[in-house]
Amino acid sequence: MTLTDGVRFTGSAARTLAGAVLANAAGARRRSPIDAAVTAYDPLDAATAAQPHAAYRRLHGGPRVQYNPKRRVFVLSRLDDVRAAARDDANLSSAEGPMLTRIRTPILVSLDGEQHARQRRQVLPAFTKAALDSWRPIIDRLAAETVNEVLANPGCDVVQRLAIPMPVRLIAQLLGVPGTDVEDFRRWSEAAVQITDLDLTARGARKLAGSLRGSWAMHRYFTRQFAVGGLKGSDTILGRLLAENAAGSLPDRELFYFAMLLLLAGNETTTNLLGGMFDTLATHPEQYDLLRANPDLVPMAVEELLRYLSPAQNVYRTALSDYRVGDTTIPARARIMLSIGAANRDPLAFDEPDAFRADRNPSQHMTFGFGAHLCIGAQLTRMEAQAVLRELVARVLRISVVGAPRWSTNSLLRGPTRLAVRLTPA
Ligand code: HEM
Description:
Bound molecules: protoporphyrin IX containing FE
Number of domains: 1
Strand content: 5-15%
Low-confidence stretches: none
Structural class: alpha+beta
Distance between the termini: 51 Å
Helix content: 40-55%
Shape: globular
CATH class: Mainly Alpha
């Protein structure tokens, strides 16, 4: 990375932050009459973020739209309303990002309209069925290796041994990062993803600084890789994107954004799912026995884990004009929380929503979003989780949690941050 690149990168990060401060200050000043029931539910409260389900039950007991005055956010918690909002990208904008804090970045998940459609068309060729099939052996090998690690170390923290390394190593391989660089890559990506827990406080600023340092290191790394060449024609994601692009080239800047997008969107979410899977199977031994007796249920059980755990708990939108939900009008410019976690536990959509049933087949869950921004990595995630679950069912008699688990307090992404387990071999 040249000095000019460094200055340009820091400059664009500073502009992003300054824009966020102005947009959030403007949002805080705006006073529209509020025509919605007030709720004390606070998605940014750490204890609620760690264990949100009682709060979801209270939301479901109230009206369809509720408003938190402290956070100036409207909350949708019903599956039908969350799905309708996710589909209505003409009236509900993603341009201020998927978090509560309004922040504009040029990555796919924060784009609207034609700009979004164009960038999505560029990314999709990297995730064709043929591409996914070609990655299956890598995924199966990683699942076998990481489950071995956990089996060989009774009482170890499964988050550190499996749930973090599996998706990081996979993305590293898919991006063409050589094994020798994976540890650096893991450190940078852990730092960079802190942006998903950003707020405009001193703590938020420290996280942003860490995130920028991680992104910068990653930027230097990929710029060097691009300069050396060798990606084009390779069976990596970036190689596929280059091959698909008519001119045979994409600007390095765009390739770097794709790499960052996959890291930000794909790592911590999958970590949450894999860690949560161990906790759920340990605390529902009868469901685990059902799976061991019927391994064909593995894909269905993964869907139920996706619903039950909701690794991404919510996404946000900004109303472009007044937006009606039932009898309530949400005013233009308001921030709206689409609570995926609550929608996935909606008693109107799921019988006994707080129960984990491996054979439920909850096909309408909202875990990967819906509509224009539907998750691009959904199939990859399923393949990873199914590979790990198949390994467990074949080789492990019983999963036990030893010691108290710790859950994240990130308001957006939820999963165990520490989970000591012992696996009893079959
Ligand atoms: C458990 C794992 C995952 C969950 C729960 C999840 C969840 C989501 C959700 C809810 C969205 C929609 C965001 C919105 O509507 O604003 C989304 C979008 C996205 N996801 Fe995932 N995701 C997961 C894994 C992955 C993986 C593994 C990748 C890639 C390697 C990925 C790539 C993306 C991308 C690129 C988008 C943006 C799509 C767009 O804006 O058009 N995700 N994800």
